[in-house]
């Protein structure tokens, strides 16, 4: 019974508008009242917060010299709270696994680009890769870093896909899987090695090597983020 | 009202509006959009309040820790959106439906 | 906590690293080597289970294990902390995890697509559970919650049917909504306290701005209740758990629901310092409603997997009946609820694995047509019946001990309404278990097409069911791990008692 297509609701937005009317006006009014009460509570909570604000800005500032980078957000992301970032890379890989498990991607070869999309990637793609590299490098001391750079790389992938650029065969096979997990693998492997050093802890970068380690991790993470975002855009396994 | 508090209140308003949209709209794409608006609201609260006056003599303009946390949250939200869209597209291909339907209970 | 260290052990931190990173490494390898997913996954599962056992023994010997990730101390860095409560849930996860892994090698043998994706997703789910149980950082817990939700939703969709996809989408939306509510609470706590470390937040809460802390606690706990499927937030659970492949249903019902319950308990006891009387009463009422509503709906189901799923809704209710009892001073109620959580984990996994066997055997799970299964699948039926004994709460099972402790607390406080609900829930559970067993014992009316069930699948189910029974005999061994909070709950300043939340 579940497999029977619901033809009466196939038409997308129009049918959703009909479904939207499912909630009776009384229930809707009740919902609005309840949500207003919730909002009042949330406002009260925000207004009760005191100034001067407690926070960790001073603590970050105090230890930033040992972190290997000079930009505070990068220091938090890849050193002080690097474990969060590792798990976040795992979340990205997991999203790709989940998307791949439900179906196949339509593929990019079928996209027929207009005149603009035919010319744009030639110009933009190399430039975007260059800017991604710059953002990665500048992240150590200014806003930037692996996520911003990886998002740009993902954008390159989407642009190439939209313009119908055929990916070489090798890019769809094991290489794609390897580059998707590279960030997590490098980050986790270095994190475990750091724990095995005498007196070390998981993800504990020795200050002298911290800069190199963070840049290595960010390089791998940038590649993985780019690949993962492009793969999520494609929407299924190749 | 200081500027940080103003942004936090805007964030809270976004959260509540998104909760309304999530409950009322049946179309799954709208539900996913509602969750995205809601996460933006939560991030705005988190980030906005980080610009309140810090206690000691701190050289930084804003607390970097919430910024890093929100960056993590954004990536998680992107992953959630990607996964949800993949599932929704598959459901649409399989059944033509773009709503949860009302007959899934049994 | 009763297990506070006499001296810092070095073994604990090493095994904590292993229980988080081994399943992660296994998941990545399974993804990279899809053809070898099953053997690689099984080895990773065995190693993870062995490390969990080692961590449990280390914590029992040396007390709470702690690690500073990145080498940074608390407000700046993230801490891992494994105490008795953590290792009890880690050990239950490992017991269910390694058995489900054995079962899955046989279950997915003939389906290459499901096999290649089950293993990496399942090992990531296990990673998320273990990471959640050892984390002592509110924001890090948010990331583990999301990891857990995405893995669970992806696994729910694995069967690929429209019902599975619908269940998975609803599950994902609910899970993200719950996480966002939790994160909103974390944001308020950070801006009220300037830290997200559990111990530091616990110390800060009494002096922090009260409305912010109350709203934060409310948002976090509401989000987690949604994920725990406490009545009336249970609507998403039966379709998701009922339409997933059997090994997936087993881990969703046995483990994933417990993770958010664990976090509610951890926040309530260790961070918010006992919580308010009024909130506890509300949770108790919802729990009682869940017991009755879930049991009645379970009884009315015609499909076995949905019956088992509604039984989970009911069993989750018992866990929340402990809140009013514990807040009123009966700390034994915590032990009872935790015992029930562990016993339910083992028994419910056994039930879903048995259901998977019956489904494989007959090609369907319509309860009325289960006739004669007992002759062909005696081990599976034994497993289902033994698991049923624990769900009903009959001696000597783990479920019996849990309910007994809850009853003890309820009698002591003369809460006869709760006593009645606990007993009635047991009677209803007996009714729905016998409904299944009774049909299975009926002689077949006519010959049906049947398929053989690999012995590994039958034995895995039986093993878990037996573990749920044996759990009842190990009270002296386990209860030191589950002594929650008489000290911390009584001495700490209650969050909402004064404000009335």
UniProtKB/TrEMBL annotation, chain C:
Q: Where in the cell is it found?
A: Cell membrane; Membrane
Q: Which UniProt keywords apply?
A: Cell membrane, Membrane, Transmembrane, Transmembrane helix
Membrane topology, record value: Multi-pass membrane protein
Which residue ranges does the record assign to the NADH:quinone oxidoreductase/Mrp antiporter transmembrane domain?
135-427
> What's the main place this protein lives?
membrane
Its recorded name reads: Oxidoreductase
Q: Where are the transmembrane segments?
A: 12-33, 40-61, 85-105, 117-136, 148-173, 180-203, 215-237, 249-269, 275-299, 306-327, 333-356, 377-396, 416-438, 459-478
